[in-house]
Prior knowledge:
This protein starts with 6 loop residues before the first strand and ends with a helix. The chain has a single domain, classed as Rossmann fold, CATH 3.40.50. By secondary structure, the protein is α/β, with parallel strands linked by helices. Strands 1-7-6-5-4-2-3 form a seven-stranded parallel beta sheet, sandwiched between helices. Helices cover 35% and strands 16% of the residues. Helix 2 (68-79) packs across helix 5 and helix 3 (92-104) runs parallel beside helix 4.
Amino acid sequence: MNSRCGADVRRRRGVPIAQRRVVQRSARGLSLLLLFLLGGTLPARAENIAETETDVYLLRGWFGVFSTGMDSMAEELRRRGIRAEPIGHLAWKQAADKIIEERAAGKRKPVVLVGHSQGANNIIDIARSLQPHNIQVDLLITLSPFKQDPVPSNVARAINYYQADGWGSPLTGDPDFKGELSNIDLGSDVGIFHINIDKNSRIQAEVVNAITAVVH
């Protein structure tokens, strides 16, 4: 089912449920262990937003070391002539401020936001920051968000990749949300887990194609 007010939940089948859950829980445990071990040794990377115009912001997750797939997708988008900028999730407020400033200066262009892990949560923060300024987010794509806020009503289309038996959860919209919301469950893909979902070639292709359809 895929309606403007509904959610499209797609499952990828073919792997026994018990086997799938064992692999996914192990992967989730590994992700948490890595985050814990690195938490006290890697400082968050400070970043500045580029002064040039940007069509797409891709936000990395914690530390910026696991979300290298965001940089790969940005490179592919640039090859297609789309101005894409991968940034650390801590720079989300700077990105929101830049979008607001550009719109106030009369620049009218699609707003596209992509995020992985904590970056996925923060692109929802960007969208909500744009809402009081009546700025629409044309496309918002989240990869493995966790304990995220609802999607605000200024988002026209939201796509969420998550694992029902692993990491992440479905997106929901605010009560006044009337956009298109698609939740894609990757729970049966045992090779995909939290720290590599952004690097999966199939998912990258889907994300890049969805962005290209909006920006071009």
